[in-house]
Write a structure and sequence with these properties.
The complex is a heterodimer of chains A (698) and B (70). Chain A is mainly alpha-helical. Helices cover 65% and strands 6% of the residues of chain A. The termini of chain A are far apart. The chains are: A mainly alpha (698), B mainly alpha (70).
Chain lengths: 698, 70
């Protein structure tokens, strides 16, 4: 394999540093919009769809990055775009189900939904799984950044008389320190705006590589004719090679990944929560999947295709045995001029920074919402003022970010053992997403899915997944669709199908036997020693879990023990945790969305269509969360007292940055004028004399 | 070389199995009331959902044909 070092010139390094400083200053300007932790994490439910759609691009392109898709583009051709073109199958579930639920239930994190829908124990289990998932994602981000920057550096250097070898791990530790500084500028509003700028620049830079590459080769016709036919096909070979095949990637990315991306990627979910309404969220999501993802697929993969064409036309410039993960940097260096290469590398690394930043911000949100607040509530009786508490939480969020950054760096160690970042990410995705995806998906769409069933799913699913790792043959082999077994990295992708199957199996079995479980609990409760019996069964379950985890028995016995353990766990869940079906499903599943809307509004829904109106504004003395329009204006908006209203600056290019949500108060008789309080004007950053736009929500 | 295994088999599998997920999504949101056919905006998003499925199918089919015949 060809190893590259010291690519780029002094001009490139200057361009990179200037770009980084500019992006950081840009982000710090928007951090003034962080007034509370709600702003820090959610940006305050106010933004227009186009702003959110563009800011998602940098997150999507950053994490599903130039490095790994160019590597696959070089090895396999246009089929590197597969992962960007298979996200549509779950869109109806998302836009008519999950999106309205996350907005109307006002959840702050995915685990919080699990507590509302199931129980505190379920919230705890999902918090653990989700933190693993997010930290792993951060690790993938660090690994990608390390692989991007390593070819630019010399193999060794001497500083102040001390000799340093440049290693991937050492470089990643330095990157993590820089990210730590970068994130303290942040908050969600700053993240959204830096991502917006970077999304546009990234697409420009990626397309620039394609145009320069085609120019280098002598035009599109030459490029097309140089590529072998297999490199032009959009879908990979059905089941080979084990490192990149269609059927494995369909289940790992098209199913587990798509549901994971839309339903449980907190970085993305928080973006949708920052949209001003459900409809704006729908626009952002569909526009992103229909148009931005296919464009992103070309942007991130084309360096690999260009690299392949050059390696055929001129193998001395791009050797055919170039390390695939280096191909993006090598091609960008070959086809561009000094300075341009620096710009391309700066956009790539800054975007990766954005991805890691978004993920760390989301991880800190989970920590604050699902660990810090519940634990603090449980430990202290001291009542703090709202401001004291908020200040303390912002500090805790920053400390948590540092700790998660450290764990992210640690997780790079196992990931770096895979031949490419793509395979590391694929394996990580196919093992961590299935239990959460199954739990969240069935929780939203199957109202019979109970608390005991979700605990059975998580415990049983994870157990059989562990057994799948110990015994890929025969367990995963049954599902392999003819994919060859690679003893080094067994079933990297198709493992996702096995994992989804075992989680769904326990979900269905646990749900369909709910009546029998409850009968059994009633029988146990009649026994004088019922508490002792149930406590013993929990202890036995934990022991069985350890036997499975450490693989201490032959496979048939372990399989039997798994089913026995799940039965005991499900019975114990019904015994120890009261699950009120009505209370736990009202407004929390797709079957009762109208209830969710009513809870959100606090009263009956008024869904008559009204106009958007332009108005002037005046300040009113006092403090209240109502705004006051004239009777005629209320009629035009089809609004009643107590309905929700969204008021924004009339200039559309602000995308909702200057806006506020409130409630209609008592009307007056001055048409074209709205009375608002000081807090509204401050929160919406309204400018005196500027016209506002008002519309009824929902 | 191109064969059934890297052209039409993945295509049929993608839109066959993916189509099962997609249609079951439409059926579930319709039955549950998540999609409300008397709401004008909902009808618009329903059409967009169906359009998206065929949009990606057409792109993939066109790419396979272009690779094979151009």
């Amino acid at each position: 394999m060809e190893v590259h070092h010291s690519l780029g010139t002094a001009t490139d390094w200057i361009v990179m540093i200037v770009y980084f400083v500019a992006i950081m200053l840009f982000g710090s300007y928007f951090s003034k919009y962080n007034r509370t932790t709600t702003d820090f994490f959610f940006g305050g439910r106010r933004f227009a769809w186009w702003l959110i759609a563009m800011s998602i691009v940098a997150t999507g392109v950053g994490s599903h990055s130039f490095i790994k898709y160019s590597a696959k583009g070089f090895e396999a051709g246009f089929s590197s775009t597969m992962t960007y073109m298979n996200d549509w199958f779950f869109v109806p579930f998302f836009i008519f189900g999950w999106l309205p639920i996350i907005v109307y239930t006002k959840i702050r994190s995915i685990p919080e939904y699990f507590e509302k829908r199931f129980s505190v124990l379920t919230r705890f289990l999902t918090t653990l799984l989700l933190l693993f998932y997010m930290i792993g994602y951060v690790g993938i981000g660090f690994l990608t950044m390390g692989k991007a920057i390593l070819p630019l550096l010399p193999p060794e250097f001497t500083l102040l008389g001390i000799h340093f070898d440049v290693t991937l791990m050492g470089l990643i530790i330095v990157i993590a320190l820089i990210v730590g500084v970068y994130i303290t500028y942040g908050g969600q509003t700053a993240v959204i705006f830096t991502d917006l700028a970077q999304g546009l620049i990234l697409i420009f830079a990626g397309m620039l590589v394609f145009v320069l590459g085609l120019d280098y080769l002598g035009g599109f016709g030459v490029f097309w004719n140089l590529l072998p036919t297999e490199w032009k096909l959009p879908l990979a070979h059905f089941n080979e090679p084990p490192g990149f095949n269609f059927v494995g990637i369909f289940w790992q990315d098209g199913v587990a990944g798509s549901v994971g991306f839309l339903f449980m990627n907190m970085g993305l979910v928080m973006r949708f929560m920052a949209c001003k309404s459900v409809d704006e969220g729908r626009k952002a999501a569909t526009f992103n999947i229909l148009f931005m993802l296919p464009i992103s697929a070309v942007v991130v993969g084309n360096a690999g295709w260009i690299g392949k064409a050059i390696s055929i036309a001129n193998p001395s410039v791009v050797p055919p045995d170039t390390i695939p993960d280096n191909i993006f940097v090598v091609v960008a260096n070959v086809i561009s001029y000094p300075g341009v290469f620096g710009f391309i590398m700066a956009t790539l690394t800054a975007a990766l920074m954005s991805t890691v930043d978004t993920l760390l911000n989301a991880t800190a949100a989970i920590y604050i919402n699902d660990i810090h607040r519940p634990v603090k509530k449980w430990l202290t009786k001291k009542v703090q003022s709202w401001k004291e508490e908020d200040k303390q939480e912002l500090l805790s969020a920053r400390i948590a970010t540092v700790i998660f950054t450290f764990f992210g760096v640690l997780s790079v160690i196992p990931f770096s053992k895979f031949p490419t970042v793509y395979e590391a990410h694929g394996y990580f995705h196919s093992t961590l997403t299935p239990p959460l995806v199954t739990a969240i998906f069935l929780g939203v769409f199957w109202k019979k899915f109970t608390n005991a069933a979700v605990i059975g799913t998580l415990v049983g699913g994870v157990s059989l997944m562990v057994l799948g790792m110990y015994y890929p043959q025969p367990l995963i082999q049954i599902f392999d669709h003819g994919t060859a077994f690679d003893p080094k990295h067994p079933y990297t992708y198709i493992g996702a199908l096995y994992n989804l199957f075992v989680c769904a199996l326990f979900a269905v079995l646990s749900t369909l036997t709910t009546k029998q479980q409850l009968k059994l609990v009633q029988i146990i409760k009649k026994n004088a020693h019922h508490n002792f019996i149930m406590t013993s069964s929990v202890i036995i379950s934990i022991l069985i879990y350890l036997v499975i985890g450490f693989n201490l028995a032959p496979l048939p016995i372990l399989l039997a023990l798994t089913f026995i353990m799940v039965a005991m766990v499900v019975i114990a869940s019904n015994y120890f945790i009261e699950y009120k079906h009505e209370e736990k499903t009202d407004g929390l599943t797709v079957w009762s969305l109208n209830k969710a809307k009513e809870y959100f509004k606090g009263s009956k829904i008024n869904d008559r269509e009204g106009e958007k109106i332009r108005i002037q504004w005046k300040l009113k003395d006092g403090e209240d969360d109502t705004v006051h329009f004239s009777k005629n204006d209320m009629k035009r908006m089809a609004a009643e007292i107590g309905d929700l209203v969204y008021i924004s600056d009339v200039r559309k290019y602000f995308g909702g940055l200057k806006s506020v949500h409130s409630v209609y108060g008592e009307p007056h008789n001055e048409d074209g004028l709205v009375y608002i309080f000081k807090d509204h004007a401050a929160q919406g950053q309204f400018v005196e004399g500027r016209t506002l736009l008002a519309e009824k929500e929902m | 070389m191109p064969s059934f295994f890297n052209t039409w088999l993945p295509f049929i599998y993608l839109y066959g199995v993916g189509g099962i997920f997609f249609v079951s999504g439409l059926v579930i949101v319709k039955k549950s009331g998540g999609y409300n056919s008397s709401n004008k905006r909902h009808r618009f998003w329903w059409k967009i959902s169906i359009f998206g499925f065929f949009y990606f199918m057409l792109i993939h089919a066109a790419q396979i044909l272009a690779a094979l015949y151009f």
